[in-house]
Design brief:
Helix content: 25-40%
Number of domains: 1
Number of helices: 3
Radius of gyration: 17 Å
Order of helices and strands: HHEHE
């Protein structure tokens, strides 16, 4: 799967989320339980937590872990989108920076990011 297909999937998900946000803004008086039900009604979806812990066999990675651990030569984000689509998921959410503080995009705010790993590729793009 290529990054373009993942981008399309994320755009679709973004549009769904945007639609919910617009709906929330237009109906600011709606109860929280109603808004929560809107999310539940989306049904089956995917949350992708892809970061340093993926390569450390840990749920909570060391925020000082060596960037060389992030080895992903065969990253195929299209595979993620195909899996979601084949499972009839209605939304997807890519966690771009988890609690370890490791961004999977090109950022200048910290050197602790995907661009300084062997992958050297912005996963979000």
């Amino acid at each position: 799967m290529n990054i373009r297909k993942l981008a399309v999937l994320l755009l679709v998900v973004g549009s769904l989320i945007s639609r919910l946000q617009v709906s929330a803004q237009q109906n600011a008086d709606r109860k929280l339980t109603d808004l929560q039900q809107d999310f539940v009604d989306l049904g089956f979806g995917m949350f992708i937590h892809y970061g340093m812990p993926t390569f450390m066999d840990q749920d909570w990675s060391d925020p000082d872990a060596a960037l060389s651990l992030f080895q992903s030569p065969k990253l195929d984000a299209d595979q993620w989108a195909k899996a979601a689509k084949s499972a009839n998921m209605t939304y997807g959410c890519l966690t771009t920076k988890h609690h370890s503080g490791f961004p999977i995009w090109n950022t200048k705010t910290t050197s602790y990011n995907v661009m300084n790993t062997p992958l050297k590729r912005d996963v979000v793009k």
